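Hi again,

Forgot to attach this to my earlier email, sorry! This is the prediction with adenine bound. I've pasted everything inline since the attachment limit keeps bouncing my files.
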Amino acid sequence: MKITILTLFPEMVEPFFLSSIMKRAVEKGIIEYRIINFRDWAEGVHAKADDIPYGGGAGMVIMPGPISKALDSIEAKGKRVVFPTPSGKLLTEDYAISLSKEDELVFICGHYEGLDQRVIDEYVTDEISIGDYVLSSGETATIVVIDALYRLIDGVIASESLEDESFSKGLLEYPQYTRPYRYCTKSVPDVLLTGHHSHITQWRCDQRLAKTMQNRPDLLSDASLSIEERKRLLSILDQDKRTCQRWILSEL
Ligand code: ADE
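C-alpha cells for the complex follow:
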C-alpha cells in the first residue's frame, strides 16, 4: 500500500514509520510512504499556509492554495483522500478493514481550527473521527487511523494474532498472562496451566463475554454470538445478579 501524508509538521509523523511493526512493513515493501510538507507550496516571505476564518471566530484555518497545489502534485483526485477531523465518521474496526483493502491512501493532517471547506469538497473522500474528543493536531489522529488499518494488510502481522483480539466477532479481548506464575501475591488462573485446550477456549470465551458486558455492553447487541455463547452470557448475568443480591443483602 502507498501512503502519502500531507502535513505542516513532518517531524511528528516520520518517527511512526521508523519504528516497530511499521518499520518492518516498510522494509518488507508492504508499505511505501511519503511525507509532504504542504508549506512548500505556500507563497510569500512567510510561506503562510493558514489564515483567520471568514465570519470571525477563534483559531486559524488551513488555506486552500498550498494544500490544493500539494494535492494536485500527487494527482490526488480519484484517490481515497482521508481527512481526520472530529466532525468525521467514527473510525471502527470495519472502517479500518475497508481502508486496508486500498492500494493507495492520501492523508491530510489538519492543525489549528480546520481546513477550508472547498478543499474538503474538492478532494476529500473520507472525513474520519477517531473518537468523541478533540485533539490539537491531525497528525496524531492520522497516525491512529494508519495504525488501525495497516496491521490488517496481509503479511504485516501473523493472522492468528488478529483472530481473538478485541472487536473480532464484536467482542473485547480475553485477558493475557505470562511468566512468572506468581507475581505480587497474584497467580495466573489455573485453567491456563492445565493444557486442556477446550477448557482454555471456554474460559477465554467467558472472559470475552464478561469483559464486553462490563466495559462495552453496547457492543453485545451487534456481536455474532452462537446459541452456546448466548447461554454462557445468561449464566454470567445470573452469577452477577446473585453476587449483586448477596451484596445488597449484606448491606441491609
Ligand atoms: N483532529 C482533532 N481531533 C480529532 C478527532 N477526534 N478525530 C480525528 N481527527 C481529529
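The longest strand covers residues 80-90. The beta strands are 2-7, 32-37, 50-51, 61-62, 80-90, 104-108, 114-115, 126-129, 182-183, 186-187.

That should be everything now.

G.
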